[in-house]
């Protein structure tokens, strides 16, 4: 037997999702910001270098004394910022204390005697170069390594990490609070469901939270109402069945005691034996119906479907019920087509349905009123069992096939059956691919109509 894995709570999952979203958002924003800041800082450095080059160029307009430019006060200030000065000799050779800076200046166009701003790479290192011309053959360049922007980038990364930590902390708190708020209605629903499992039917879930959570609460409340209604119906059904069982059992027990005690002798004993046999058959039929109804929805309940002539089946059934109806002074009429009507059904189960409907009709039909077995064909075969009894109220027809409903309503007012016959008949007809409906009959009572598709 496998142990079910422990599931994480909704609050934990929401917190993790919030953390993931916050982390991704901060990282993506940091990467974009780093790229923008890196580009912007390089532009700022380039502009600052250009401004300093312009200042130097203005000081030596028209001539470029090499010694003065290399050792002047402005030069010292520039070099103090990590900027190299590269001069061009009259012979075109660059003069610089840093060979890499000299190569960078030449690569940037120092020898072309024209002002320009360049970003060049020498030996894998990037340099910012500002070239200025102060006269014929008098050119200099300011060269600054681009790594000066690394400090800004490192500060940015540090700030991004700080923001990431703060964002994750806020996301964790927000996710935890949000998870608790969203899961609270679900916890209430779970508590109510646990109470329902323990037999409580008076518990209800508060309708709160988002629409989806409120829908879950509404469904659980509707389920609780349905369970309470179903269990009430089940109790009523069991009460009606127990009543139906108790009546024949009482008769069997009473007459059996009379025979055993010698109270019933001779003709009385024979009548007692007939009563015991009749009530035992009634009990057997009731138990059989209960078993059939219980098995009806199970996979092992099998039907022997075959082609049959519905006219012949109705005629045979009428022969049996005509005698029983005559004994009650009830006229049985049979209306069938003059030709065979072929359907696919289980003959035994279909006969059971017709017998059950006819028995119900005879139970409520007064002397002198008719019972009609009417078979019609209109693309389908329709067999109606109609009676001239008191009929049903309009609101009873939709629930006529629910177990015990009619028994509960009419018990004590008119003869009723066990409360399972119509439910069983409806289940059998449905399993055979047909329908069973109820409605008023032209004869004044009720009509129960079995509809089956015609055989091809």
What does this structure look like?
The chain is built from 11 helices and 12 strands. The chain is rod-shaped, with a radius of gyration of 50 Å. Helix 9 (347-364) runs antiparallel to helix 11. The strands form 3 sheets. Strands 2-1-5-4-3 form a 5-stranded antiparallel β-sheet. It has a 5-stranded mixed β-sheet with strand order 7-9-10-12-11. It has a two-stranded antiparallel sheet with strand order 6-8. The chain has helices at residues 10-59, 66-71, 73-80, 99-108, 150-197, 211-260, 267-295, 310-327, 347-364, 405-410, 421-431, and strands at 84-88, 94-95, 116-122, 125-135, 138-145, 306-309, 331-335, 342-345, 370-377, 380-387, 435-440, 446-453. It is an alpha+beta fold. It folds into 3 domains: 10-152, Beta-Lactamase (2-Layer Sandwich), CATH 3.30.450; 211-295, Signal transduction histidine kinase, dimerisation/phosphotransfer (DHp) domain (Helix Hairpins, Orthogonal Bundle), CATH 1.10.287; 306-453, Histidine kinase-like ATPase, C-terminal domain (Heat Shock Protein 90, 2-Layer Sandwich). Residues 240-456 form the Histidine kinase domain. It catalyses: ATP + protein L-histidine = ADP + protein N-phospho-L-histidine. It comes from Amycolatopsis xylanica. It is found in: Cell membrane. Its EC number is 2.7.13.3.
């Amino acid at each position: 037997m496998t142990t079910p894995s422990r599931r994480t709570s909704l609050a934990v999952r929401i917190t993790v999702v919030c953390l993931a979203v916050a982390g991704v958002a901060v990282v993506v924003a940091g990467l974009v910001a780093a790229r923008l800041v890196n580009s912007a800082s390089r532009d700022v450095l380039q502009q600052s270098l250009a401004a300093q080059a312009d200042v130097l160029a203005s000081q030596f307009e028209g001539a470029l004394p090499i010694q003065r430019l290399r050792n002047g006060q402005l030069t010292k200030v520039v070099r103090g910022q990590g900027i190299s000065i590269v001069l061009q000799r009259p012979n075109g050779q660059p003069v610089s204390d840093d060979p890499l800076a000299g190569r960078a200046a030449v690569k940037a166009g120092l020898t072309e005697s024209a002002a320009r701003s360049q970003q060049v790479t020498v030996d894998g290192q990037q340099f910012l170069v500002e070239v200025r011309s102060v006269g014929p053959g008098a050119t200099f360049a300011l060269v600054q390594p681009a790594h000066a922007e690394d400090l800004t980038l490192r500060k940015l990364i540090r700030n991004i990490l700080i923001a990431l930590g703060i964002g994750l902390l806020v996301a964790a708190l927000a996710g935890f609070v949000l998870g608790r708020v969203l899961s609270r209605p679900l916890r209430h629903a779970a508590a109510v469901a646990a109470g329902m499992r323990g037999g409580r039917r008076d518990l209800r879930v508060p309708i709160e939270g988002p629409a989806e959570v409120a829908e879950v609460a509404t469904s659980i409340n509707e389920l609780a109402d349905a369970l309470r209604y179903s269990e009430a119906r089940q109790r009523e059904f069991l009460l009606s069945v127990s009543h139906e069982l108790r009546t024949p059992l009482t008769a069997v027990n009473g007459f059996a005691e009379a025979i055993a005690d010698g109270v019933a002798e001779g003709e009385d004993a024979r009548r007692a034996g007939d009563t015991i046999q009749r009530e035992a058959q009634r009990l057997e039929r009731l138990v059989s119906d209960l078993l059939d109804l219980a098995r009806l929805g199970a996979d092992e309940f099998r039907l022997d479907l075959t082609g049959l002539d519905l006219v012949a089946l109705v005629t045979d059934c009428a022969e049996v019920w005509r005698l029983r109806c005559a004994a009650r002074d009830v006229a049985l009429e049979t209306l069938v087509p003059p030709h065979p009507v072929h359907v696919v059904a289980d003959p035994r189960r279909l006969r059971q349905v017709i017998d059950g409907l006819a028995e119900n009709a005879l139970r409520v039909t007064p002397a002198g009123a008719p019972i009609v077995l009417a078979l019609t064909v209109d693309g389908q075969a329709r067999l109606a069992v109609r009676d001239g009894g008191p009929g049903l109220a309009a609101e009873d027809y939709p629930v006529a096939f629910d177990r015990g409903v009619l028994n509960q309503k009419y018990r004590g007012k008119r003869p009723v059956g066990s409360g399972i016959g119509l439910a069983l008949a409806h289940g059998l007809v449905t399993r055979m691919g047909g329908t069973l409906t109820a409605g008023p009959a032209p004869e004044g009572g009720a009509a129960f109509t079995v509809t089956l598709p015609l055989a091809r």
